[in-house]
Design a protein that fits this description.
This protein is an alpha+beta fold. 44% of the residues lie in helices and 14% in strands. The protein folds into 2 domains: 3-106, Phosphorylase Kinase, domain 1 (2-Layer Sandwich), CATH 3.30.200; 111-298, Aminoglycoside 3'-phosphotransferase, Chain: A, domain 2 (Alpha-Beta Complex), CATH 3.90.1200.10. α5 (122-137) runs parallel beside α10 (243-253) and α8 (177-189) crosses α11 (257-278).
């Protein structure tokens, strides 16, 4: 499909559409002001609805399962977690030409976490580790009693092999190609997760953390939530923390060598993907992913 055709296939989302969807499906909120949040992220267009709610409209087909996934699982997870998470209020249906489910959630106060705010904080490193520990310990009865839903099945690191090796070849010279290949080979060769599957966030990076008054307060965006190998969530150590606080995080979480190595592989693969996609047009992402890749190589 040509690039123009792909763009044309995506829904056109604007304030008029969001207003019509809210008013038609949830008339109790029809009088609340609706203001678009920018930047909203790659997966959703987000509007603040009044003072206490947000409306999240998926931009593309890859994000359309998030509304129902969060509505089902976050109310179950939230009481067991030491940080705030989004509280789903309603799931909207397609309408007015918009083709997918969409979500209304409670507004979470806070600022998006930054390296400047949290990287040097050992307290933040411990808080991140304790959040992941609590998430991994949650074991709901409906997963034990039934086959694992497809949207919760973790994907192995090996599925990223072709794309990651292609990115290494493309970016050799910007980053150390030999070092990246060595790390990637080692991550793929590391022993796999040999314990019962546990919950992972799936997109655990700086942009999905909120702070208040300089302290970690919330974790958002659970579209990648799943069950399996938790190594993917270790990317936070490489996107956010200093080397010293990386060690604090690892010790608090109790990560073995093989899982840590797979986590470095996840950080390398996701960093290369984001750098390839956005670095030429977004200097902020270029800086963030350069830091992530460099930290993954350093260990």
């Amino acid at each position: 499909m040509a690039t123009a055709d792909v763009a044309d296939a995506l829904p056109r989302i604007d304030a008029t559409l969001a207003r019509r969807l809210v008013d038609a499906q949830f008339p109790q909120w029809a009088t609340l002001p609706l203001d678009r949040l920018d930047p909203a992220g790659a997966d959703h267009v987000i509007y603040r609805l009044g003072e206490e709610l947000t409306v999240r409209l998926p931009r593309h087909a890859g994000a359309i399962g998030q509304a129902r996934k969060e509505s089902h699982w976050l109310p179950r997870l939230a009481p067991h977690l030491p940080l705030e998470v989004p509280v789903p209020v309603a799931v909207g249906e397609p309408g007015f030409g918009y083709p997918w489910p969409w979500a209304v959630s409670r507004w979470l106060d806070g600022e998006v976490a930054t390296v400047e705010t949290l990287a040097g904080s050992a307290t933040a490193a411990v808080a991140l580790a304790r959040f992941l520990t609590a998430l991994q310990r949650f074991a709901p009865e409906d997963l034990r009693a039934a086959p694992l839903p497809e949207d919760l099945t973790g994907r192995p690191l090996s599925e990223r092999d072709d794309a990651t090796r292609a990115a290494i070849d493309r970016l050799d010279g910007i980053f150390d190609g030999a070092a990246m290949t060595a790390l990637w080979d080692a991550a793929l060769d590391a022993p796999g997760w040999d314990r019962p599957p546990v919950w992972f966030h799936g997109d655990f990076h700086t942009g999905n953390l909120l702070t208040r008054e300089g302290r970690l307060s919330a974790v958002i965006d659970f579209g990648g939530l799943g069950v399996g190998d938790p190594a993917c969530d270790l990317m936070i150590a490489f996107t956010l923390l200093t080397p010293g606080n990386r060690a604090v995080f690892r010790d608090e979480l109790g990560v073995d060598d093989a899982t840590w190595l797979r986590g470095r592989g996840w950080a390398l693969a996701t960093g290369l993907n984001a750098y390839s996609s956005y670095a030429a047009v977004n200097p902020v992402i270029a800086a963030q992913t350069t830091r992530q890749i460099t930290a993954a190589l350093a260990g």
